[in-house]
Amino acid sequence: MIAMNAPSRGIPALALLTVVTSGLAACGRIPGQFEIVNDQVPMSGSCVIGVDETVYQGQGTLDLTLVRQGAQSAYFVFPLLKNNLDASSSGGDANQIFLSSFAIDLTPLGQLPMGSESAFTGANDPGSADYALFHYQTPWSGSIPSGGSKISAIVPSFPVALAEKILSTQAIGPAPALWVNAKLRAFGSTANQNMESDPFTFPISICAGCLVANVLPCPYTVAPTFLGNPCNPAQDDPIDCCQSGSDLVCPPPVVKQ
Description:
The protein is mainly beta. The chain has helices at about 130-135, 160-170, and strands at about 1-5, 35-40, 50, 55, 60-65, 75, 80-85, 95-110, 135-140, 145, 150, 155-160, 180-190, 195, 200-205, 210-215, 240-245, 245-250. The chain has one domain (about 1-210).
């Protein structure tokens, strides 16, 4: 399993190694050897990602109003990776996969909401400055022994700049009306070959305000009811907030009376 502190709004954005994923070297992928099984759900109350295949979700929700500048990512996918290469019968594990990176490709699903089209300009144009918001690679490390072993990961899967660009169109409201498909691939190598995982697709619904639960003046004097996702307050789970001037603070600070 993997544990991670909830991303701080004040820390610098995670440096992404932006590349055109179509230019990645071919790895001779054989389906079924190296899998992304599903998107895991963090364990209750902490940003710990386990390897139980039954604890997963099939789609996500991103609330644009909860994304803050300086966050590592607007949305994280928690892929469960599995190495199905044959286990070594003796000596070292020559089929152990050493991870090097993830590639992420973002594609809108269905018809774009009216007025949001400008946010997706350049999504399919490799010559556009915005192309790297939709197609990029992020470095990663770790290893997966052969013979069906599994590990989990935490992958920045939606750039903050793209979330801000979509929100600025003012075309997205509290009811999710936009879907974006995130396609992930993992890359690594064994002692003998480069490895590319089977592609994994994960749909994310986009809204502006749908995850905001209760809003009270700052600070709270009792513990909030809805604590949000422990890895990222902008995704998947309802969260209580407090109002500080024109800003929402989520989750809210609590001062005991």
